[in-house]
Structure to design on (171 residues):
């Protein structure tokens, strides 16, 4: 399992991309982001990317995350779509969603947008933020993913791995 913080405890501003898994692994599909990032970390070793377990405390990681050119955040995202659907969003998309539907209480300590806003106030926001959201099927106590997400897990991990490679190849 990923430790909170960076891969092997190394923090490097030389890493172009930071990949953060968010979610509560004790609440089934709420932990899909952490699970996906763990799986990609096992398959991908590249000094230009660091992997983080943000759990439910993105705010605590913000100082480490600010040095990356690109921050890719992976999390469960309830958007009313079909369970297992994948959404690739920019920060502006999240802000628009928040305006349309004010956030309800989150299982995370602070919302992703609140964490990003706080990092801006501290003068150290990541240059670019991209979000990979996965529509959950079940958010309830339990350690295992739902049947839908479990059945698509390899595909979801492959999508994440390809997105990381694409971001690394961007100029």
């Amino acid at each position: 399992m990923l430790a909170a913080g960076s891969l092997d405890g190394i923090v490097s501003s030389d890493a172009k991309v930071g990949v953060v898994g968010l979610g509560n692994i004790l609440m089934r599909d709420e932990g899909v982001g952490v699970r996906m990032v763990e799986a990609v970390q096992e398959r991908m070793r590249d000094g230009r990317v660091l992997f983080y377990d943000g759990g439910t405390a993105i705010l605590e990681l913000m100082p480490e995350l600010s040095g990356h050119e690109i921050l890719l955040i992976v999390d469960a995202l309830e958007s009313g779509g079909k369970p297992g659907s994948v959404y690739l969003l920019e920060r502006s998309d999240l802000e628009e969603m928040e305006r349309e539907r004010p956030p309800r209480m989150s299982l995370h300590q602070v919302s992703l947008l609140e964490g990003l806003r706080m990092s801006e106030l501290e003068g150290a926001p990541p240059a670019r933020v991209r979000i990979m959201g996965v529509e959950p099927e079940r958010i309830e106590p339990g350690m295992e993913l739902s049947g839908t997400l479990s059945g698509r897990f390899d595909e979801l991990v492959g999508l994440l791995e390809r997105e990381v490679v694409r971001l690394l190849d961007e100029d």
Observations:
- Helices lie at 32-43, 58-65, 91-100, 112-121, 147-151, 153-169.
- The two ends are 31 Å apart (CA to CA).
